[in-house]
TrEMBL record:
Keywords: DNA replication, DNA-directed DNA polymerase, Nucleotidyltransferase, Transferase. Its EC number is 2.7.7.7. This is DNA polymerase III subunit delta'. It catalyses: DNA(n) + a 2'-deoxyribonucleoside 5'-triphosphate = DNA(n+1) + diphosphate. InterPro entries: DNA_pol_HolB, DNA_pol_III_delta_C, DNA_Rep/Repair_Clamp_Loader, P-loop_NTPase. Residues 247-321 form the DNA polymerase III delta subunit C-terminal domain. NCBIfam families: holB (TIGR00678). One of its GO terms (biological process) is DNA-templated DNA replication. One of its GO terms (molecular function) is DNA-directed DNA polymerase activity.
Amino acid sequence: MSFNDIVGQETAKQLLQNALRRNAVSHAYLFSGPNGAGQMQTALTFAKALFCTEREDDACGQCLECRKVEHGNHPDLTMVEPDGASIKIDQIRDLQRIFSYRSENRNPKVYIIDRAEKMTTQAANSLLKFLEEPQAPAVAILIAENGQALLPTIQSRSQLVPFRALDPQMMEKVLVGEGYPAALVRCAVHLASGLDECRKILNENWFAEIRNVVLQLGKESLNRSGSAMITASQKVFKTELSDHLDLLFSMFHLWFKDMIHVQYGRKESLVFIDQAEYISGHASARSTAQWVSYMDLAAECQKKLRYNVNGQLSLEQLLMGLGGNTPA
């Protein structure tokens, strides 16, 4: 794995490789951007490049140092991730203890903190002191969905490396080329920010199931027959799909958006490409304003879910709204 193997993120790769070429590597980097956009892959590649004995600005992937990183047993690379819901001060103290020993190979020591925004206040303050006064040459890579969520003092001591969601068409081409079903890929690339995240959900059995349920609920809700409620009860809340309601609401949003795409003659933009005939035949059943209102309702129910409102109530509110009824 080298920088050439990372899809997209040209700004991030150029920034890091320029630092390697100029021998001007910072003591701390903040990889900020949407989850799954390639931050971890880039962080590991950067660590390999720092250790690599063959290349100046990249990882060769063949030398002993590179292979140690790939096998997860490089003595100068330390990974930190949340222990439960947060990264705790004891984890940062353990990191400091590990880094009190000098590197055996004159490498800088590298540590990667995944989901760094999950640090407790005490952990963040402890890390800040460590950033200011490392006991050995060290490079910190902090990965965060929102870098602004970190302490301003940590932000100011780290070089920002921006990551952006990958272009869906670019991801779709790669994933279809890897043999994933085209209909599932088209949906996944509009739900995830990067290839790793897409592959993760495409490899889950429930992903195809939840997509089928959304299609069934979306069609049944157009009939105003009330059958959508029964389907939701049987196929969502009595199964493991109830653990993935956030994704279900996102799919509903895409379903309603597809209706608008057809109304405006943009069939090439459809997400549910295998449903083109059905969508074309039913898009006119509601006005554009009504489809937009359904998108808003899906977003509102998803927001409630994220604020810990009961999942079943949230989905029932959506289905009742689609059926033209006002939820109690």
